[in-house]
Design a protein that fits this description.
single chain; mainly beta; 15-stranded mixed β-sheet; four-stranded antiparallel β-sheet; 1 helix
């Protein structure tokens, strides 16, 4: 399961007195979209904590990008299982539900087929997993403890265990410590920004209990420590993570690098500029075309339930896309590239 990002908040400036505070309105709002890139062979270096730093990450590469967009939780299938959530987004394993308030940005749970059984189920986080605390300034720290618990009853793929047991109960408890440990100037392919760096250290305890006929047969626990770092700016055009990575504390090896490739824009037709991409025919049956593209643009198709059903990088200014496998219905088509992010509606008829 791809772990949801952790977020930093910020204080920055070129002098120690140029501190700022970030509140919940400084983060992406409903229907705002950014394009995130993934660098699989990063050359960036980790630096010790401290003020007035310069991070030169201008050589980040894109090995595959995808849009990150939030919407009201009611837009996403499964929202009724998370009544406290007011935001939703779509991830690898299903729909992700979050709560944004004046106190913080919190992960509430996931709705999807996490165990590949063919059925979508809600997996709730008790009480929540904090991603960022508001308001935030340099040297602020916070703590959060969250728990996920679920039961696996289909043990056919568990070998000998499946032959003697009828269920496996998994409990994952995360003790999280967040600390805004640095401020300075961050240079990325998107530009130069005053930024804060948030260090999140997780102590993750996984507990496994095997049951047969209602009685516990075995109990085993594992503990892991994970560290991640996120850079965020108060620039009104970014409103999201500029760079994030995981760090192996023993080897200083950096991994899972994500970085923001585009400024934040509303996913509506209000922001389009010059030669807006056009979809035709619309309604469509087996395929559709988009004109006014640029080579390298990315086209993403999202269902009305928030599921990612298509993701393409185009090689021509006018491209065709097969939708033979898509059921009839309405879809959103996001086009990200040289001219920003464009959102289109597509109707599929069979």
């Amino acid at each position: 399961m791809k772990r949801l990002f952790t977020l930093g908040a910020l204080i920055c400036g070129l002098t120690a007195s140029a501190q700022i505070t970030v509140n919940y309105w400084d983060f992406l709002g409903p229907s705002e979209v950014v394009l995130m890139g993934f660098d699989e062979e990063p050359s960036i270096m980790h630096t010790p904590a401290g003020p007035n730093q310069t991070w030169d990450y201008g050589e980040l590469n894109d090995y595959g990008s995808e849009p990150t967009a939030f919407g009201p939780s009611q837009w996403f299938e499964g929202h009724q299982n998370f009544p406290e959530a007011n935001y939703g987004t779509s991830g690898d394993m299903g729909n992700i539900f979050l709560r944004k308030s004046a106190e913080g940005f919190d992960l509430m749970g996931i709705y999807g087929d996490l165990f590949e059984t063919g059925d979508n189920i809600p997996v709730k986080i008790n009480p929540f997993q904090r991603q960022i605390a508001f308001p935030m300034t340099y040297n602020q720290s916070w703590q959060n403890t969250s728990t996920i618990a679920f039961t696996i009853t289909d043990l056919e793929d568990f070998g000998e265990l499946g032959a003697i047991a009828d269920s496996l109960v998994v409990t994952i408890t995360t003790h999280r410590n967040g600390n805004v440990d640095s401020w300075g100037t961050l240079n990325t392919p998107l530009g130069s920004f005053d930024a804060l760096r948030l260090h999140v250290k997780d102590s993750i305890i996984q507990n496994f209990v095997v049951y047969a006929f209602g009685f516990p047969l075995a109990n085993e626990s594992e503990t892991a420590i994970e560290n991640s770092y996120s850079f965020v700016s108060n620039n009104p055009n970014t409103k999201y993570i500029l760079v994030q990575y995981g760090l192996d504390a023993d080897t200083e090896l950096i991994f899972n690098v994500q970085w923001q490739m585009s400024e934040a824009v509303l996913a509506t037709e209000d922001f389009v500029s010059v030669k807006t991409p056009e979809i035709y025919p619309n309604p469509a049956q087996n395929s559709f075309h988009i004109s006014n593209l640029h080579v390298g643009d990315r086209v993403t198709i999202i269902s009305m339930s928030g599921q990612l059903v298509g993701n393409f990088k185009v090689a021509n200014k006018d491209a065709s896309f097969s939708i033979e496998d898509l059921p009839a219905g309405n879809y959103s088509v996001l086009i990200q590239g040289k001219n920003g992010v464009h959102a289109k509606k597509l109707s599929v008829q069979k």
